[in-house]
Amino acid sequence: MNASTTSTMLRALPAQHREQLLRVAHEVSFPEGARLFEEGGRAGRFWIVRTGTVALDLRVPGRRPAVIETLGHNELVGWSWLFAPHVWHLGAEATSPVRAYEFDAEEVRAMCENDPSLGMAVAQWAGRIVAHRLQSARTRLLDLYAPYGSGIAR
């Protein structure tokens, strides 16, 4: 399973659920170098990238943040908004100018609570993304810091 399969909203959610979510989205832009969020901060929003790229990074004591994954067109930026305590587990930075759909986390959580079918679809979508990103983080950190790398041939 690759990143575009797991995080592309167009493939992951049924049409009616995509439409419900897109009705509450608004378009935003970020210049290259803008921080979308910081690890440990309150997760009150999330985004679907329309154009540009966003790097997910992890603080490493005594070093620059390690880039875990780079996200692009139609990919979800942020999943921590869905799970209590709603705190970012990673940081995110625009690595090029970005246009995205932005969603208010409280509004989407309320929609999911009021429509269990939507809630299940969003939870499954986010769960697949979490699993993929945890594996990406593990692989990237092993490549960066383990004596023999991840052992995965590229």
Characterization of the model:
This protein is an alpha+beta fold. The protein has a single domain, classed as Sandwich (Jelly Rolls). It has five helices and eight strands. The strands form two sheets. The chain has a four-stranded antiparallel sheet. A hairpin with a 7-residue loop joins strand 4 and strand 5 (66-71). Helix 4 packs across helix 5. The longest helix is centred in the C-terminal third of the chain and has 30 residues, at 116-145. The protein is globular. The chain starts with a helix and ends in a 9-residue tail after the last helix. The model is unreliable at 1-6 (pLDDT under 50). InterPro entries: cNMP-bd_dom, cNMP-bd_dom_sf, Env_Response_Regulators, RmlC-like_jellyroll. This is Regulator. GO terms for molecular function: DNA-binding transcription factor activity.
Can I get a quick summary?
This is Regulator. With 154 residues, the chain is of the alpha+beta class.
